[in-house]
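Hey, resending since the last one bounced:
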Amino acid sequence: MIRMYHNPACGTSRNVLALIRNAGVEPDVIEYIKSPPDRATLIALLSAMNMAPRQLLRRKGTPYDELGLDDATVSDDALLDAMLAHPILIERPIVVTEYGTRLCRPSEAVLDILPQRQRGPFRKEDGDVVIDAQNRRVR
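The structure tokens again:
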């Protein structure tokens, strides 16, 4: 099973979802803005990605600056609290497969943890070719 923490308003997240589907898999999609992970799940995701909370913080389009999260003295617990209170602070997309858990930025990072190969050519929304007509990874 593949689980994806997805924000449909994010182009990278949409590209990752399309790459997963291009491999012939329909993932369990969690729109984490509407259904945020609980603290234990967020900690487990961070651990699986070998990341600290600060590494998973998103700045753009979030209350990051308003909350003073750029202050290096803000503790990991406080950062987790902020992410749970404001899920938009969680960088996306996060994909969980049997081959690993990854923050898929850039979107091609998902290819390293998918159980199946791509079934055909793939272009990102912006037109960049990721999988060519011979089913080879370009990027």
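The domain at 3-131 is CATH 3.40.30.10 (Glutaredoxin).

Sorry for the duplicate.
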